[in-house]
Design brief:
7-stranded parallel sheet; Rossmann fold; alpha/beta
Length: about 300
């Protein structure tokens, strides 16, 4: 594998950096395509000297083709949770992946792996709609693509448990939007990375839905967080209508903890479908939350 080049877009993010870690251990040569290559300086230490190379890419069609040139596999981990300035959901989750698919087809790469989102085919949020639109465009231009749809991804640098544990340090109560009944199937970031590595090994194609061994409600997830941090904020049910009003006023903040679109997304359960291809089809054993959460939520204990 040391001669097999993998180009990763978004390789410095939470999921992307872990994928880099796993693939580096397996001996792949990794090219990190970044607008600002300095962001990749810390990630490149996950491999041997010269194994992980930051590569400047302006994200134009020509720039993508240059970053992909000579690669056997291309992985796209680019995604946003908030729209800000020119970084819209459609630009990030649809038009950019479409350009990548075109570049992969032109450069005749062996495999294109794209990180999407679970329930994007069911939710009515703008985030989900953009993810689904991106999947359709990818399959239009690179029909043998591998699309992975993870549920909430947990791990040391996640944006779910860390965020709510941080809020619980300063707030006496946390909202249970929609009563906290929305179901989730959290998946460990290491399992997502193993799914990518095994998809490459098996040359797997198509759509895979990635969820962990437990299906829990939003309320149960916050209770699990409390059990590992020792925090005891009140959990107050908040109807969707009031949550949208609250999110509207929060939208003026630079990084709002809640948006109207996120409230909309909570109206749809985030669990693996009955007949979907899953982690098991990629030979990945699911990791239980209780074996991982204490390793990083302990810092929130008093």
């Amino acid at each position: 594998m040391k001669n097999k080049i993998v180009t990763i877009f978004g390789g410095t993010g939470f999921i992307g950096a872990d994928i880099v870690r796993v693939l580096a251990k397996k001996g792949y040569q990794i090219r990190l395509a970044e607008k600002h290559p300095k962001k990749a300086e810390t990630v490149k230490f996950n491999g041997n000297v010269g194994q992980i190379i930051p590569y400047p890419c302006d994200m134009t069609q020509k720039g993508m083709e240059q970053a992909i040139d000579g690669a056997s596999v291309v992985i796209n981990c680019i995604g946003i949770l908030l729209e800000k300035g020119h970084r819209s959901f459609m630009r990030t989750h649809c038009y950019l992946p479409e350009d990548l698919a075109k570049a992969c087809a032109k450069q005749d790469v062996d495999q294109f792996i794209h990180i999407s989102a679970l329930s994007c085919d069911k939710s009515q949020s703008d985030y989900a709609k953009s993810k689904l639109a991106g999947e359709k465009q990818i399959m239009r231009f690179f029909d043998k693509a591998t699309i992975l749809r993870p549920s909430i991804v947990f791990g040391p640098k996640d944006s779910f448990f860390n965020m709510f544990a941080g809020m619980a340090q300063i707030l006496p109560a946390l909202p249970l939007i929609g009563g906290g009944k929305t179901l989730f199937q959290p998946v460990y970031v290491g399992d997502v990375s193993d799914a990518v590595a095994n998809a490459m090994k098996l040359n797997a194609h198509g759509v895979y839905e990635l969820g962990g061994p437990e299906v829990l409600s939003f309320k149960q997830l916050l209770q699990k967080m409390k059990s590992h941090t020792g925090q005891n904020p009140y959990l107050i049910p908040l109807p969707f209508s009031l949550a949208k009003i609250q999110a509207f006023f929060m939208s003026v903040l630079p990084n709002p903890p809640l948006t109207m679109d996120q409230v909309e997304s909570l109206k749809t359960d985030n669990v693996v479908s009955d007949h979907a291809k899953t982690l098991s089809d990629l030979d990945v054993n699911k990791t239980n939350m209780d074996t991982i959460l204490p390793s990083y939520l302990g810092r929130f204990q008093k």
